[in-house]
Amino acid sequence: MAEKAPNAGIVRNVSNWINGEIQEAQSDRWADVFDSATGEKCARVVMSSEADVDAALASARAALPGWSGTSVLRRARVMFRLKELIERDRAEIAALITQEHGKVLHDADGSIQRGLEVVEFACGIPHLIKGEYNDQVGSGVDCYSMRQPVGVCVGITPFNFPAMVPLWMFPLAIACGNTFILKPSEKDPGCSLKWAELLAEAGLPPGVFNVVQGDHVAVNSLLNDDRVAAVSFVGSTPVAEHVYKTASTNGKRVQALGGAKNHLVVLPDADMDQAADALVGAGYGSAGERCMAISAIVAVGDAAEPLLDKLLPKIDALKIGSGMDNNNDMGPLITAEHRDKVRSYIDIGEEEGASVVVDGRTHAITDSPGYFLGPTLFDHATADMRVYREEIFGPVLTMVRVDTFDEAIRLINEHEYGNGTAIFTRDGDAAREFAHGIEVGMVGINVPIPVPLAFHSFGGWKRSLFGDMSIYGMEGVRFYTRLKTVTSRWPTGIRSGADFSMPTM
Ligand code: NAD
Which residue ranges have their beta carbon within 6 Å of ligand 1? Predict the structure, then answer.
């Protein structure tokens, strides 16, 4: 049974959150937000101007001395309360995600869970942020290091995870003592105000967390403002590159996570049932709109035929429809424009000569209102084809056949993206060699979507990540703090006069 979308029939206004309250924006530019399963307008979101961004920055800057000086235990307690509040409201948040994004409720709920785990990790900040101490590094001299907040941090997030990706960023940034400005995707902005309300209810002082809605105008003014110390970005590779170049040129700390083309290698000895299940879930779950979705299958040796035997009936059995119906496996795409772009890739693949084994363009679901497309499977694709090289970000799986394991590794290592990858095999030696030699940031062994848990860190290689540090986990703590090292000696310890040579203790 399909649930009703929250506020069905009501067009909400989504505005900014500045200094602890909703603030009407000065900009008069607005964009529409759609219920992707029905195609109906469900909200309007303001496209903030430079003046709106300035107001958010002033609020975040003013709150910084008070919040960074608040004891780490009190900051942790806000995270404990936030965890309880997210758990209390998670069904409402999942329904909001499903309405604006389209993913099925159970999947939306899973994404909240993965974000919640970062809040749980941030609850441990008093331990995580501890420095180091070395006594007697010289005669009467001690040395210690501490991690201090970097200042005003900015998070710019994509449409595909309106709950999880912001939660990868702001809990740790805030727990580390920074203030934060979130610029969510304009395609599904609803959750951003929910975070603001819950943080306020959890006791976070006004100004520590702010939201500016909008597009490149808001992003660019944040990137160019001297009050911003650090930028976390997650989105497509061209925008990640722009954000990285602009913000780092302006002297900011930047982590910019980009797009992906994730390969799943199937060796002939794999459990084909398991591999096929992994492929339908990781290829078509969330309509393929996951940065860790599998989009390329690499069938090694004679793996292709037995794999297809298992895979095709599973694709055929996929239940596609409104995400409000928890019985469905796959919902619509985010917008009509994106659905059309993904569909055009099926045309391109066909023209390039890949065989269209399953054609999403002709699926019965495409007659429904909303932004639906059926699942597509290409076979006999080659490394020079656009459907293999480019990120499609939709329910399209592209199979490449190779003769050997070494060829599979070479193919993946030569790809410009290096976000995630997986291998399905019963051969421990092959799996180990794969994990060791593959030039990709996150690797699954008989696990199709190897998103690291909150106490590890998430990040790709090559053109899937610009900047030096991955997101959340201890890398997140390091990203949102600056290291300070103190060397101390008390006056009675200074026994001789000035020393002009390099101190060697
Ligand atoms: P996007 O790059 O279009 O947008 C991301 C953010 O950047 C949004 O907030 C958007 O408003 C802003 N933006 C868009 N164009 C801009 C411009 N020209 N200048 C400044 N800001 C701009 O990405 P999307 O379509 O929202 O999300 C899908 C993409 O995100 C896919 O490529 C996917 O792989 C990637 N993604 C990556 C990860 C990861 O962890 N590596 C996670 C989720 C999504």
Answer: 156-161, 165, 183, 185-186, 215-216, 219-220, 234-236, 239, 242, 257-260, 291, 391, 393, 419, 460, 464
